[in-house]
Amino acid sequence: MSQSDLLNRIRALPIWQGEIDVKPLDGGITNVNCLVQDSAGKYVVRAGDDIPLHQVMRFNELAASRAAHAAGLSPAVVHTQDGLTVLEFIESRTLTEADVRGPAMLPRVLELVKSCHRDVPRHLRGPALVFWVFHVIRDYAATLQDQNSPYAPLATELAGIGNGLEQAAGPFDIVFGHNDLLCGNFLDDGQRLWLIDYDYAGFNSPLFDLGGLASNNGLSQQQELWLLETYFEAPVTDTLLHRYSAMKCASLLRETMWSMVSEITSEIDFDYAAYTAGNLARFRAALDDFQNT
Fold first, then answer.
1. 103 within 8 A of 226, measured Cβ to Cβ
2. Torsion sign, CA atoms 265, 269, 274, 280
3. How many degrees, rounded to 5, is the angle at CA 8 between CA 7 and CA 12?
């Protein structure tokens, strides 16, 4: 869909009051987002159909978004229609990786993640998905091979590593995970934090979100230990640390393979090749640390 077609579809939505102004928003690497202002206020419009290759199903994203709003974590869903989701706009700034690592910010971020795990499922309605990272890794490997990706020869090796990590990361507890804890999914309005973008939400091990939060935002080893001790409210055992480290590797592997698949499937203007290279390097480094401890 061209940008002009998208803007016309947004303008045609029946919810606007008076004249509207529509502007594309930068930064999305899964969806196209626009900022809309009418006489009543500002809104964010997310455009996107199901993306089975990435396990993204919009009915699930919508249910999770509504539940997250009911739990007090996320902006309200105002309207949905034909692949467009209209959300309340929050005057805020997007966190950076350095923000997330900040000693005053990290406890606030972790509390928001804990609330997602604990409170969102209380408000969730209808069918819900499981986001099982090891299945995702195996499926990505098959996709890369089926589509003759340049990474196809590497895919078999990565799938095998993922299978080994699955064995090392158990046994598993289950919570309702956000499963995409990039810094860009945290907003600060000056008073409180918001957690947005539930494309990949689903039941999962809490260690996946904790590992993703750490690896996506460059937490130090000391911060990771604090993260585990604070989340589980208990001293960190060697067994827990081993399981967590395996899941952190899996989180990085999934992000890497997500980008590999996006290189050959996404129409969004984003340098996926550079994103792949950066995440692959981070995954290899984390895997070396895991295998040498």
1. no
2. negative
3. 115
Q: Buried b vs exposed e over 5-21: b needs ≥16 C-beta within 10 Å?
A: ebbebbeebeebeeebe
Report how far residue 39's alpha carbon sits from residue 16's, in angstroms, rounded to the nearest whole number: 8
- Cβ-proximal residues to 87 (8 Å cutoff; 6+ apart), any chain: 43, 44, 45, 46, 65, 75, 76, 77, 78, 196
Q: Which helix (H) or strand (E) holds 291?
A: helix 272-291
**Tens of pLDDT along 120-167?**
999 999 999 999 999 999 999 999 999 999 999 999 999 999 999 999
Q: What is the C-alpha radius of gyration for the chain, rounded to an integer number of angstroms?
A: 19
Torsion (CA) 119, 206, 124, 60 in degrees, nearest 10:
150
**What does the buried/exposed string (b/e) look like for 131-151 if buried means 16 or more CB atoms within 10 Å of the residue's CB?**
bbbbebbbbbbebbeeeebeb
Distance CA 47, CA 53 (A): 17
Q: Convert the pLDDT of each residue in 173-222 to its tens digit.
A: 999 999 999 999 999 999 999 999 999 999 999 999 999 999 999 999 99
Q: How far is CA 287 from CA 136, 284, 291, in A?
A: 18, 5, 6
